[in-house]
Amino acid sequence: MILLTKAKGYYDEEFGKLGLKVKYNLFLSGPPMIEALAGDRLDFVHTGDMPPVSGRAAGIDIKVIANAGLDPAHNALLVAPDSPVKKVNDLKGKKVGAPVGSSAHHFVYLLLAKHGLKPSDIRLVNLPAPDLAKALETKNVDAIATWEPFVANIELSGTGKVLASSDGVKRAVNVYLTRNEFGKANLKAVEAFIRATKRGIDFFRRNPKAAQEAIAAEAKFPLPVVQKITKRYNWGLAVSDKDRQALGSVKDFLKETKVLKKDFELAELFDPSYLRRTGLK
């Protein structure tokens, strides 16, 4: 939604009312965004569910200020079109590529448990998301787990097919974050961010085709990829109890896999006051 809101000029308009100029920075993954946020190089970010939990555990005082959209099938497990793996249980003893510590890794963990398998039943291969499609195509792994838009790109290119998605397995929450110090000192700026984003959501609901075209142009993604992903999204800004529980599940997973550096109270991660001040959901 940030890409659409940027393309429509809503951020420039809302921040402009406060005499502020907007600078945009594109990142390929969440962890570098959290690092930039912690270093005062960013004020607002959109990430998946892993980076905010890892960041808060590392002592970075960040707050979830709103939901950035829920895609029920955001994560997926893919196999080659001619793969002998036909069901999840066929993965036993097989190599599965995924970025360790990512939402895709968490999805695999939950998917295996749902089918009565343990993490030790597969051979997890730690690969960065951009390298997964090639690993699957060259048969260096038997399956891969990743997230959108990689899933749609791999499907539409014919490199892989979805064996299982996160729908009904993992609630893949996306969130908007700010630094607590910045938010408290710049209430009007946070409200401007939320108002502009809500304008983007409203535009998408009124004009989905034009919105998808604008996102595709801004993201440099093929239009069919954007159409496939965005039609599934729930764009509401409100953070529900289920969203909080989903981030709690992430925290439990990172603790169990010994990725979490330090535990923290989950409530520390959320600040609903900004949404309440704007009255938007």
TrEMBL record:
Pfam families: NMT1. Its main location: periplasm. Keywords: Signal, Transport. It comes from the Bacteria. GO terms for cellular component: membrane; periplasmic space. GO terms for molecular function: ATPase-coupled transmembrane transporter activity. It is found in: Periplasm. Residues 3-219 form the Solute-binding protein family 3/N-terminal domain. Part of a binding-protein-dependent transport system for aliphatic sulfonates. Putative binding protein. Belongs to the bacterial solute-binding protein SsuA/TauA family. This is Putative aliphatic sulfonates-binding protein. It comes from Geobacter pickeringii.
